[in-house]
Amino acid sequence: MKFPMMILPALALAGCATGEYESAASDRMKAADIKVAEKLEGYSVAGTRSCLPSRLNSGMHIHDNQVVLVRQSGRYFHQKLGDGCRNASDFHTTLVTKGTFGTMCQGDIATVVDSSTGMFSGSCALGEWTEYRKSDSAS
Predict the structure, then answer these.
(1) Residue 73 phi/psi, 5° resolution?
(2) Is the dihedral of CA 15, 17, 18, 23 positive or negative?
(3) Which of 9, 63, 64, 110 is most exposed, with minimal Cβ within 10 Å?
(4) C-beta separation of 99 from 52 below 8 A
(5) Strand 75-80 vs strand 67-72: parallel, antiparallel, or unpaired?
């Protein structure tokens, strides 16, 4: 009977650590939501696209809330990555896509790779890209 009693304090401590981790992760998500909203301020949805040229990657930023923003010619292209790519915004990771003819298309598989070790960290299917253009009222 002593064995279960010894486990209870360990489980309680683990619960506290998990709560702190989840709180920090939630704070990062909220901060990322704010950053994305700030970048898209003055922009409005102009439509959707199934594919983007992968040459636009130089203007790509992946936020902690799994949102990908690509800036090109005064426009933004937005999409939310699936849970398999939740580590894509980590400092030492790279998002690798294998599109057809140099594109990133809806349904393509994106793989998260640790750039220091080359190890696979997760994957997800890309979704549709939402295009944002400067609003007429923001001119």
Answers:
(1) 50, 45
(2) positive
(3) 9
(4) no
(5) antiparallel
